Amino acid sequence: MCSLSIGSGSITNPAFQPCKLNSNFSFLSKMPLHFFQVSKRPSKDQYRTCRFPKCPVSESSISSPVEAEIADEGDDPTAELRYLDPEVDPQSISEWELDFCSRPILDIRGKKIWELLVCDNSLSLQYSKYFPNNVINSVTLKNALVSICDEFGVPLPEKIRFFRSQMQTIITRACTELGIKLIPSKRCLSLLLWLEERYETVYMRHPGFQKGAKSFLALDNPFPMELPENLYGEKWAFVQLPFSAIKEEVSSLEKRYAFGAGLDLDLLGIEVDDKNLIPGLAVATSRAVPLAAWMNGLEVCSVEADLARASLILSVGISTRYVYATYKKTPATTSEAEAWEVAKKACGGLHFIAIQDDLDSEDCAGFWLLLDLPPPPV
C-alpha cells in the first residue's frame, strides 16, 4: 500500500498566503510514491548533539502571588500549588492544559491519591489539587475548574487540551457543562514536562510515595491505521534545515496567518546551535493548501520511521496513528530511515513537517514543529 498518493477533495481559502522558507532544504532523499531514491547518507558530523534539559519550574513559581496561604512546594511535597504570574494579564489566558489522574502516592487509607494539574502553555498559570479516589467524577472536576477561575480571577478558558484518553468521558462532561472546547492532544508539552519535573521534586518526596507503582491510565499506542484520503500527498522526502531557519519558520507562523504550529523553544529549554541541522519530512502535492488545511485540524504530534515495516507513522491527537507513507525495504532505505531517527534523537526529539507544492520550492503551505517526548512517569 502506498499511503501518499493523489486524493480527492478541495478546500479553498483565498486569504491564505504561503510562507516563504528562509533556507533551502538539504535533502537526504526524495521519495515519489512507492519509489525511494537514495542519496548519499549524511556524515555523522552533520548531526551535532544538542542539549534538551527538563523544563524547570522557577523558584518564583513556588510562591503564590494570590492571597491563599500555601506552603512552599519545595519544602513540603504534600502542599498544593497555586501560581499566577503577576506580570501576565489574567484575561489573556484562554487555553489550558489539564491532567486528572491518580499518582503513585497512597493516602492514610492506603488508597491512591488523585491529582488535578492545570497550566497554560507558558506556565504562567499553575494549579495543583489532590483528591481522594472516592470523589473522582465530572462534578468534582467541573467545580474544581470553576474554583480556579474564582481564585485567580481568570476567565473560563476557551479551550482545554488533555492527553489521557481514559479520562475523556469525565473531562468531556465537565467541560461541556462549562461551555469549554475540549482538544484531545499530546501537544500538551508544557504539562508533560511539568509532570516529569513534579515526579522528581514532589511525588518521590511525598511520604506516601510508592516506588515502582504504575499508573492504570497508561497512554495508548495503538496499531497504525490507513491514512484518510484527504491527507494524501504525492511525494515526500527526508530533509533537514538549519536550526536558524526553523526559528524563522516558527516566527513566521506567529506573525501571519499560515497553517501549522510551532513550539515555545525557550520554555522547553531547547538549546541548539543555529547551524545544527534539524531533521524533518517534506511532503509535496498539487493540493498543498487543502492538505495543510486538513492537517491543521489534527493536532499533529510526531512522525516516526518504522524500520521493521518500512513505513512512516504519523501520530495525531491522543492515540491516533496513521501509516503516512511506505517505501521499498532495502539495506539502503533502512539506512536512510535509521539516520533520520538518529538525527531526531540527537536533537532531543525535535523535528518538523513541511507541506509544499513541489519538493524544490521555497514556498511552504504548512509547517509543524514537532517534538518526541517519552510518556510521563505517572
TrEMBL record:
Pfam families cross-referenced by the UniProt entry: Tab2-like_C, Tab2-like_N
Outline the extent of the RNA-binding protein Tab2-like N-terminal domain. Answer: 96-198
Q: Which InterPro entries match?
A: Tab2-like (IPR009472), Tab2-like_C (IPR046761), Tab2-like_N (IPR046760)
The segment(s) forming the RNA-binding protein Tab2/Atab2 C-terminal domain are 217-370
Domain of life from the UniProt record: Eukaryota
According to UniProt, the name of this protein is: Protein TAB2 homolog, chloroplastic-like
Q: What is the lineage of its organism?
A: Eukaryota, Viridiplantae, Streptophyta, Embryophyta, Tracheophyta
